[in-house]
Amino acid sequence: MKKSSALLEYSVITLGSAMMAFALHFFLEPNTIAPGGVTGLAVVIQKLMGIPMDITNLAINVPLFIAGIMILGKAFGAKTAYATIMLSLFLRLFIIFFGADYTITSDILLAAIYGGVTLGVGIGLVFKMGGTTGGTDLAGAMLNHYIPTLSIAKLMMILDLMIVAFAGMVEKKMETALYSVIALYIVVKLADFIVEDLSYSKAFYIISQKSDIIGKRIIDELDRGVTSINSKGMYTGEEKEMLLCVVSRAQVIKLKKLVYEEDPYAFMMVATIHEVLGEGFKEVDSL
Length: 287
Description:
By secondary structure, the chain is α+β, with helices and mostly antiparallel strands. The protein has helices at about 5-30, 35-50, 55-70, 80-100, 110-130, 135-145, 150-170, 175-195, 210-220, 250-260, and strands at about 200-205, 225-230, 240-250, 265-275. It has a 4-stranded antiparallel beta sheet with strand order 2-3-1-4, with helices on one face. A hairpin with a 6-residue loop joins strand 2 and strand 3 (about 240-250). The N and C termini lie close together (about 10 Å).
């Protein structure tokens, strides 16, 4: 890995860890909102026993990390260790500079929404750079080793829901658990959105009697590559060519117009593609 690339990745992981700590300290913990994971469990333990979140985060994740090495053969690597340490470090810094009980809002719905958004973006940035902060993803992978009939995703969901339920029990309020579910949903959706990339492309599957003309116009006018795939209609038994072409969002309307100018009866399928690697899109060297 190039030094510049490594520096960028660890800088982004640092930013993601800082955002996670910000969400936990200023939104989630003061309102006992536990959006799953070890961080959510840390919120509950601080509320129940008064142990600071940064200490709980390290106390749970370090043994979990070691267990992961023993059970899985290899852990998530240096980036996971770095992200875990940075999360605890930022939590400690926020406690030192702002105090343990500081909160931006006491409105539990606002805390769930904004805390979930900030935490989700932070986790997404860490995941995007190939790291994790330990927690239920590592625990899920270890449990999957012994319970292969349940997927890692399902095991993670079970663990997260248990933590969410625990938060409701500690506060003795069903509302706390329900708000935690809202935060958990936002976190998962935003983290997936960041990992899948903020940009996307469209894949067109085009079946037409004039595929040769359409393909040539796509190459000449849109400067995009086209792949011809032999296909056969099962009802008619007719052999046809299906064109496959991936374009940017800005070219979607142009491509539709181009196709229907040549063949108003063309059959098109359009799919959203979250990542495209290769010439004209993201270069493999940039990963």
